[in-house]
Design goal:
The longest helix has 40 residues, at 286-325. The chain is an all-alpha fold and 326 residues long. It has 2 domains: 1-78; 135-326, no CATH class. The protein contains 13 helices and no strands.
């Protein structure tokens, strides 16, 4: 039965990708990209990678769709006609695809317990993680403890994305806002539904943030979900009201403070005579120290991701309003 589910999902992914290639309506393309991300999340669930599916659904089908719609408001809905020759792009895609297919020939059989990945570090994590880290969710143990350096680097990359967007687009200052009030002012039903939904979304984000050590979740997913709640508020009630609740300047401080909080845990462990991000020194009991360290660094990740996602939305939304008034 599981094989049929895999084939159906992969077939739907392929059909969605093919439809994206031939469509000229960019709005429909964005919607199909959201569907593609949702289908990818279902594939990850079938593969028992629930944490990855959680992230794909929140980022790919959620925030990315909103940001691409904001981009369409700046660039236009219809794809321009291409007057260049199509032979060179077809050649590049064909060669790249052939190289990728050739690379898969050396891949080990799917699901084989003798695959190198199951003989390398996986047994170490499975056998020692309960004793060294003590978290029920082994994915969190790997990402937040064993691979703490990598996760710190990913957080810095997210922070750098906000810097890049602000450098390229910026956020229109409130005193320069002479545009009409945005949002769905006349849609009372939508506003009422948003007022009911937004607190529940924030509550769920907090649950995901502080439940990531017991189940799927953590700072990345919680930050995106919380940002989605405020993005919904901005879309329904207007960008000006959203900025009045959380200002762009405050978000910049939040984005930086999350990275500093993460790195500060590593510096504190070094001050205690240990290595960078050695959570064992945060408490008298090494396992308790692991819990404290993971809780703090996940909070830093959540703060940074939330601030960056909302900052990027502010940048795109403010540019969209500016283009509309012009």
């Amino acid at each position: 039965m599981i094989e049929w589910i895999d084939l159906i999902l992969l077939g739907m992914l392929a059909l969605t990708a093919l439809r994206v290639i031939f469509l000229k309506d960019l709005f429909a393309v964005v919607m199909l990209f959201g569907i593609y991300s949702f289908l990818s999340a279902l594939v990850f669930i079938v593969l028992d990678a629930v944490d990855v599916a959680f992230t794909e659904a929140a980022v790919g089908a959620g925030i990315s769709t909103v940001l691409m719609l904001g981009t369409l408001a700046l660039t236009g809905r219809t794809e321009k006609e291409n007057t260049h020759s199509k032979l060179l792009p077809i050649l590049v895609v064909s060669v790249t695809g052939a190289a990728l297919i050739y690379g898969t020939l050396d891949m080990p059989p799917f699901g084989n317990p003798d695959n190198p990945i199951h003989q390398h570090v996986a047994p170490r994590y499975i056998e020692d993680s309960p004793k060294e880290v003590g978290l029920p969710n082994m994915v969190t143990s790997v990402l937040a403890s064993y691979r703490g350096f990598d996760t710190l680097g990913e957080t810095v990359v997210v922070f750098s994305a906000a810097i890049g967007v602000l450098a390229l687009l910026g956020i229109r200052r409130e005193e320069d806002n002479n545009t009409p009030e945005s949002g769905f002012k006349e849609h009372r039903v939508l506003q009422i539904v948003a007022k009911i939904t937004i607190p529940l979304v924030i509550l769920f984000a907090l649950y995901v943030q502080f439940h990531g050590d017991f189940g799927p979740g953590g700072g990345f997913q919680a930050g995106v979900i919380a940002a989605a709640a405020f993005i919904l508020y901005g879309l329904v009630f207007g960008l000006a009201k959203s900025m009045a609740v959380i200002s762009p300047m405050f978000l910049r401080y939040m984005a930086a403070s999350g990275v500093l909080l993460y790195a500060g845990v590593g510096l504190f462990s070094m001050m205690q005579g240990g290595n960078f991000l050695d959570y064992n020194l945060l408490a008298s009991d090494p396992v308790a120290g692991q819990h404290y360290g993971i809780l703090i660094i996940e909070l830093g990740v959540g703060i940074t991701v939330f601030a960056v996602m909302l900052t990027i939305f502010y940048a795109f939304a403010s540019q969209t309003e500016r283009s509309n008034i012009q």
